[in-house]
Amino acid sequence: MISISRSPGLNTCDLLLLESFAIASQAPGIAGYRILAHGCNAGIDGILYPSSASFDAAKFAALGRNLYHHPVNLMTRFRVSFIYSVLLAGAFSFAQRAPIQQQLTFTPYHGNGIYKIGDTVGWTVTPGPTTPTYAYKWVIRRNNAVVLKEGKLDLSSGQDKIEITGDQPEMIYVAIEPYANLDTGSDSTASPSTLASATSTGQISSTPAAASTAATQSGSANASPGSAALAWKGGNTGRDNGLYAVGAAVAPLQIPLSTPRPADFYSFWDGKLATQARLPINAVLTPVHTDVQGVEMNMFVLDALGSRAHGYVAKPAGDGKFPALVQLQYAGVYALNAHADAEAAAKGWLVLNVDSHDKLPSDPSGNIPQVYNAVGNTDREKSYFLNMYLRDSRVLDYLATRPDWDGKTVVLTGGSMGGQQSIMLAGLRPDKVTAVAVCVPAGADTNGDLHGRKAGYPYWPSDNPDAMKAALYFDTVDFASRIKAPVFAGFGLIDTVSPPAGVWTMLNQIPGAKEPLPVIDSEHDNYTYMKMEPCHSRMAEILDLILKGGKYTPKEFQP
Q: What's the pTM?
């Protein structure tokens, strides 16, 4: 994995530009690489993932040559050349750098991570491919919040166990972190027996780096670069800070609401929609050039209540009526990927890619606050998410006016905050949506911190009663009970950004058909993207089925 840190000349929008031209040029080897964007204001602008452990430098070099010679204007060519040179340097660095060390291996008692009440939830722990050089401690938490049990690993016999009885519907989260370096003399590695004897006899070199990694494991990213907590190496959570995590679900279909829905929840939102409906849409379309053949693309601007909705709309060229794919965006502020929209349109979709913010989709910043999720978070009338949600709804109003829509198919899709918006919109406009397909949906169980559940994004402050009250009006759990469309949702059992307890709670409120896809070993996909491949693959299957005129019927969940 190549992490590309922020520089004055390189941002996520550049990565999206590079991805667009790479695909358009059909460069050799492009299928082997996937560029992920995490927002122009993120600490890490993008990550380049080779499709396998081996890195083909020749193919990557060919990619750069094809990008440079792609028929674009001179300024864009210079820009692409600069971006490629930065990525190439990182790529060769990656080719010489080993993947994140795995000093520990965990084998769950149940391979799917799902247990019944009364079952023993557990893992067998053995040394990983890399010989352990740290002493490890572990803590088991219910819903990643309530400490249930603690201990230290003892691998003297070649393995150890971490286990507990699941006594209620819950998520089990186990954090395993190093607390000391092993003192093994001149040798930098240690056998399992050395690990055990060093622990028992006190031959462990405690260092300032033994500070807890609690800040990073919680997903809050409060640990600053260079802090003691980041001195450890390895781990399975994608952070390379020594932290391992494992997760399990106990009777997840029975996980209940943590907080009642506000009594006036529906009247509040019905009132907002009624007020917005009285406003003219005033759609303005601006043609956008695309190199994808057979596609018409425009940038749209729509009047909504309190703001304007923006995005790209793309369709197959010529007359016809097409199924609609509405793409909602993950957290961050960035320019949208117009090329990807054109690619989807070339397959036969009427694509509406909705910017989460009141800005042009081509604008990488738009003067949007970096911490927009905290704006107005103590008042439902001032929350940043109020206008975001209303803009999403306005796009459905606009879609209904288009003569090229097939009049029946509306699929909502997105990841993280895009999944949050998709679930919300399916509940806010249940009669307009025919299917939902999301990965790692955020925004669920916003009051969880008050009820023994670790809450995630958008991180409403649990120590502020007004914020907790306002949060409930934007919580996906409270929209879910009105959803009529079939829902697919993939999520990780060790996700700290979209905690699985919240996702299960949300899914359990949906009265109709839904297809949960828990991924036992995945954190949020900006940390462990490749581990979420089961979700990405299943989503692609669902979209392909619907595009071909098929009916999506969720697979029954088998605990």
A: 0.81
